[in-house]
Amino acid sequence: MTEFDFPATVPARPLWLVTLADLALLLVGFLVLVQAMGMERRPALVDALRAEFGAMGPAQHAAPPAPPSIMPVAAAALRFAPGSAEPIDPDPLLVPWAREALADPRVRLSVTAATDGSAADVDPLTHSAVVLAADRARAAAALIGPVAANRLTLSTATAPGQRRALVTLAFSGEAQRKPR
Q: Where are the transmembrane segments (predicted)?
């Protein structure tokens, strides 16, 4: 046999180019399938793919779901003099209102205390508006009385013209039950 016995090869596209195009079409087809399945069936597809590639069960390493956000439903406020953390004429109904609200285990209280941003509305010792706002939040919490730490949130703010502590009642939802 000589080299002249074989027909000359016809110039064609390289084999790797055809294979790459096939892979691209497969990928596009897979993405179309995933989009067409809808959100309700997507976790089952992901779990099946994990199982095929030897991964352990459903996403066990995923982060736990974020706690549900709370929904504010009512509020009361305390007023303060400039530079003071003592409430001016506290509402006598604030404490009974807060106690009645906290009787429900699904309720949380949030106390947001504010300074008005002026030079006079600062803590007399530290000359800090944030420290004064924190003292106002603590004063409001002290009026309410003892509350479990996970049911009371204290925060500070600077709001022009607002020397107050706002006590907000929020519905935090049902307690999370662990799956059996």
A: 15-34
